[in-house]
């Protein structure tokens, strides 16, 4: 079955939360807000805002953790649905973006990329594979 890919341009609602799985794999969770711009006569106005929950893994997670609330980003990834059961026995589910790549938007900002060394990818087993560990 093909993956559902998505590209989002929006703003971080808060700084990414960097955590580590029991096996030590870094994961950064963050939310991107995307506000629709609507043509209103001769001008424009803000429309509805959508919020997309995102998860980045391994080296990408560590890089994403350096971003801050309000930063405008471009996120590319695949949509995934997670399901779980609460302590009260209720079934819950959520759709989130499994991030494959993320970068700063240069629409209203500048950026200077800084390369990391190959040694910095040692947590990836010497590979540049940022797939989630499941």
Which architecture would the CATH scheme give at its second level?
Answer: Beta Barrel
Which structural class fits the helix and strand makeup? Answer: mainly beta
Largest sheet: 5 strands, mixed, barrel
CATH fold topology: OB fold (Dihydrolipoamide Acetyltransferase, E2P)
Q: Work out the helix count.
A: 1
Number of strands: 6
CA-based shape: globular
Average pLDDT:
87
Helix content: under 10%
Extract low-pLDDT stretches.
125-129
Q: Beta-strand percentage?
A: over 45%
- The number of distinct structural domains comes to 1
Annotated CATH homologous superfamily: Nucleic acid-binding proteins
Distance between the termini: 17 Å
CATH top level?
Mainly Beta
Supply Rg. 17 Å
Series of H and E elements: EEEEHEE
What is the gist of this entry?
With 134 residues, the chain is mainly beta.
What does this structure look like?
- The structure is a single chain.
- By secondary structure, the chain is mainly beta.
- It has a single domain, classed as OB fold (Dihydrolipoamide Acetyltransferase, E2P) (Beta Barrel).
- The protein has 1 helix and 6 strands, in the order E-E-E-E-H-E-E.
- The chain has a 5-stranded mixed β-barrel with strand order 1-3-4-6-5.
- Strand 3 and strand 4 form a beta hairpin.
- The longest helix is centred in the middle third of the chain and has 7 residues.
């Amino acid at each position: 079955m093909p993956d559902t890919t998505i590209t989002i341009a929006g703003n971080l609602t808060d700084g990414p939360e960097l955590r580590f799985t029991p096996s030590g794999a870094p994961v950064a969770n963050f939310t991107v807000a995307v506000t629709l711009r609507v043509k209103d006569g001769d001008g424009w106005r803000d429309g509805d805002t959508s919020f997309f929950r995102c998860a980045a893994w391994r080296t990408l997670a560590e890089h994403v953790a350096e971003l801050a609330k309000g930063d405008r980003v471009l996120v590319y990834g695949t949509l995934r649905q997670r399901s779980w059961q609460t302590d009260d026995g209720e079934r819950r589910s959520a759709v989130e973006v499994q991030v494959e790549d993320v970068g700063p938007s240069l629409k209203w900002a500048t950026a200077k990329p800084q390369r990391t060394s190959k040694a910095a990818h040692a947590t990836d087993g010497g590979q540049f594979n940022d797939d989630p560990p499941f």
